[in-house]
Design goal:
single chain, alpha+beta
Amino acid sequence: MTFKSARKKKITKAERLKQLQEEEERRQKEEEEARVKHEKEEMERLERQRIEREKWHQLEAKDLERRNEELEELYLLEECFPEAEKLKRDTRLLSQWNHYIQCDGSPDPSVSPEINTFISLWKEETNETLEEVIAKSKLVLNLIEKLRLLLLQTPSYDLEDKTIIQYRGSILELQELLHLKFNVATERLLRQASTLADLDSGNMEKVIQDENVTLYVWANLKKNPRYRSVRFSETQIRFEIPRILATSGIAIRLLHTHYDHATPLRPVSASLQGHTATVTHFVKDEVQKGEAEISKELQEEYKQQECESVSVCEEETKVEEQGDIEVQMSFVQEESEATKCKLEMKLLSEAVFAAQLLLIENANEKPCFCEDNEVDLCQFTTLGGVYHLDIFELPPQCKPMKGWMIVEILKEGLQKYIYPPESTEDFETENAFPPIEVTLEVQENVIFFEDPMVARWDAEGKHWQTDGISNVLYQSEERLITFSLETFGPVTLIQDTHINMPFQSWELRPLDVNKVLLTVTTVFTEIQIQIKENLCMLASVKVDNKKHSSTLEGRWMTPISFILALKETGLNIFPTGHSHFYVVINHKLREHLTEEEPVQDPNWTLLMFSGDRAQRLKINENSETFSEALKEETEFHSTLYHLVKDFASKEAMEKIRSSKCQFIDSVCYMLLSTRLLSYS
């Protein structure tokens, strides 16, 4: 085998220089081509930017040119709000008149003499039974609800400070008197306990159920130390009492009020009073100035016409001229009335606008609490009413004597049994006063999305707190809650106010002219609300994707009454001014839908409104990044309404313009109350 070696031909210096020269020329040529291309692209980019800038300036100029016209049209459309407020005011006046002409004997709670007379007369009735008090409580609760709605529905600019104090004072008096009446009637029942004793146990048991109140009374007549478990027949209500109570002459009362009269009334917002007062004062000044000018013009016109009438008195056309003067004076008066009405509408419009802004106003500071276990009522809500748990000393029993019933009536009235006593030194064992185990039934029409917390009322501090309660067990299927209580008093169940916030999604869908369906979807529930004219109705509720029946379904109510009713059942989707302290708000522009979430109509139109300008966006629902770029062949507008006019059908715009002012006001109020844009 032979190997041949081949030498690589050696490149000369001249050839290497030639190659380098060629490479340099090629590099320079490429750089020149790249530079020319870059310059061309840059020129094209700058030209596009110039064209876009010119187009942008043209659109801005066009927008500014028609801004006043569009805003004037918007102001005309916004006249529906003061018109709706006028109708509300007329409705309130009509309600007062209807109550007056009914003559049914019930007082008008807004009239101080009437409600004071009612309270005084009821105080004088001292021999009522529990059944009679419960029957009367329906009227009392109705009066309290009317006053409550008057405070909420009447705008602050229509309520004087003394009127607010009067209404709140009447509410507190009625609440206190109602509870006092229950205590007096309970004492009367307990004086007859021995005549109502059960034949088997020897103790007395009484249960009275009503739509607003459920009352359970048990009297320990036998004092049997082995009778330690108190359970009311045909119910799940149960008490496990210690030996010291089983051997004492005591009575246990559970008064379950389906309403909450323990929690103090919320004070009127200082910002609400101050802001509205400022606006009202400002516009009232304008009204007074306008009236003064009108009055001055009338006087001058009258003097001028008077002089003219004197000068023509000697002429033959005196009668005709006098007729012309009267016509002119009538015209001036009509014109002044129209001007005055216009100024009053301005006052109303400014006040309504201020009230709408306050619905979405956020508090600057988070509320602070002095007690460690105090319930923050900005974060939690009481639900299902209040359970008034009391232990009373058994009053002297009535005794038959020669056909008469003799009974000793204590001057001090019904006395509470203090458990545990203030001093326990006289008792041998340390555990003589253990916590009392209580089992309560949860109100059926209240929804708890999580296990409720139990809170007790602190009478001294006037607030709810969570200490002194242990071993809480909630049975959701049986709707029972069991816990141990160190001392008796009012207790309630509480739930996180913001448990349904932030919202997962929402939709406002038109059903017909002056009728829409608002759907709000949260982690736990889907709520559908129908709105028509000045009324709202709960259309359906789903809990964990299952249909849930509610007593509110099918009942049309005014927006404020409807919101209160939803809150009382646990369906709270209404943020407050403090909610931003407790809810993590999702600031993302949008969330992409997954394949498992099909959309019936994927062609969404994305609109943006900055407060000064409305525009259609070039991006769509599937765009990866946000851009304020304007959609091709579209323009700027001053309002969303005028932007929608560019692509909406004539039929759609006609339906918008033909919508009633009360309907627009109700939809606006619900959107402001739910604050869907902020809490979704």
